[in-house]
Amino acid sequence: EQFKKYLLQNKQVNFTFKSKPYLINFIDADIYPQGFAAIINNISEFTGMNMLCDIGNGTMNVMFVTDKKPDAQRIYTEKFGTYQCTLQIRENIMRKYHTDIPEQIINSVLRFGTADIDKDYLQTITQTAKQYVFNIFRKLREHGYDEKLMKLHVVGGGSHLIKNFADIKSDRVLINEDICATAKGYERMLEMKLIRGGGKL
To answer: What's the pTM value of the predicted model, to 2 decimals?
Structure first.
């Protein structure tokens, strides 16, 4: 409720973007668990026990979904997003090679698993990313992750880290690479709200 109040503190906002004036009226705000929007369109697949892991730039958000229902008592946030991984890579490269590596190169390796750079630099980045992903799974286990009991669904920009650097042999780790999944989910939830309200907000 406090966050909703914060979002609605200004009922109207005026601003100019690319020389075009805008007037925005805020009617209402709905608050959902982080990452939930990304799975709403395929929630029917979440039978049994599931862990949802949304890896963003600054945080990693974890939520349990059991038989298609989110568990509000088991939602966790860790300051363990891709930015922290990037900082660790830059630190390791600086310590080993005394080079301030551009963030664009790091992002390329994290996203695609490689880049057109010296093999020693690439190896250092890869080893750091693998260690970081190892620590992601350690944190997930601290929150109750057990690959034999549940499926792990990974969403968000950090899903590339899991795809490229995790040593996964299980088909129970599912990675959603659709960068529009969250936006599609919010659109779907608004449609559902409109239907429940008879077509009115």
So the answer is: 0.82
